[in-house]
Amino acid sequence: MKLITVEEQYDTDANIAQFNKYSEVKNNNPFQDKLKPDLVDFSRKVAYMDQHGIDMQVISDAGNSAQVLPDAYAVDGSHAQNETLAENISQYPTRFAGLATLPANTPDKAAEELEYAVTKLGMKGGIISGSINGQFLDDPKFDPIFAAADKLGTTLYLHPGVITNEQRAMLYDSKAYPAATSSMMAGAMWGWHMEAGIQLMRIITAGIMDKYSHFKIASGHWGEFVPMFLERIDGFSGIVTKLPHKFSYYYKRQVYISPSGMFTAPQMQLALTEMGADHIMWSEDFPYVKSGDTVRDFLAQADLSEAQREAIAHGTAEKVFDL
């Protein structure tokens, strides 16, 4: 079984230094220093893939991304990340494909960078992590990014990002448990993912997919809560929107989901029921998650037809990312 995983991470020494110096956003992972060798050294990535039967990774900078740098640094920082990623991929062209880092808070520049990265560097789309300085992508200012993705017929990966301090204070801080607990609740345990699902809900509800039908969205962590609420959302979307189709029409047409290392059978079966294998890809979230042989074994042993297994293992990713 050929295996492609699609939410895998990298970083560069230059970006790490720039992030530490200029970013106002907190470090996205408390284990970043420990994980640095697996983020920056592509030979280590290949060794891990060989050990655990992973044929290809689609990789991106979704951790301490140049996206969150102040505007004065984000454009050049994102461009540098993409150039370095392309250079690393050129050394292992059959093992990696890349997604471009985008300076999303400067949408015109982000659109230019996406087009450059796809047409000149061979990237397979772009990645946006979380809200943009507290702004969601349905704001009309971000339209150039979607217009560029649609023109290219490419994919935007909507990855979680660090939520705002205001969100954390209102939703997760409590006098009843320690600050470390609220940090985890606001982050990888719940908050990041809820915000990412809201991001996607707003994009569809705002009519962006009705306006632009030729781009695709990839969504990790089994769709960031959205698939389990599709029928509920549809029940209200016809009342509160003027879109010609229900929410699920756009979601099932243009969104593709993956587990991001959440190898759980009940969620997989729900995703399969709602989306079908042709809208499911595989992902580990390396190196933030290291599941080892489970990456392959879980899928190999899952309750799937062989056609479904092959689609999830590689076929859907090949279609979505033009591999």
Named at the architecture level, the CATH assignment is: Alpha-Beta Barrel
Beta percentage is 5-15%
Count of the domains: 1
Q: Number of helix segments?
A: 16
Looking at the structure, the CATH topology is TIM Barrel
Computed over alpha carbons, the radius of gyration is: 19 Å
Strand order of the largest sheet: 4-5-6-7-8
Q: Distance between termini? A: 16 Å
Structure write-up:
GO terms for molecular function: carboxy-lyase activity; hydrolase activity. This protein has 323 residues and is α/β, with parallel strands linked by helices. It has a single domain, classed as Metal-dependent hydrolases (TIM Barrel, Alpha-Beta Barrel), CATH 3.20.20. The chain is 51% helix and 10% strand. The chain has 16 helices and eight strands. It has helices at residues 13-22, 32-40, 42-52, 71-91, 107-119, 143-152, 165-171, 179-186, 191-205, 208-211, 221-224, 230-240, 247-254, 265-275, 294-301, 306-320, and strands at 4-9, 56-60, 96-98, 100-101, 125-129, 155-159, 216-219, 255-257. It has a five-stranded parallel sheet with strand order 4-5-6-7-8. A three-stranded parallel sheet has the order 1-2-3. It is globular, with a radius of gyration of 19 Å. The two termini are 16 Å apart. 46% of the residues are buried.
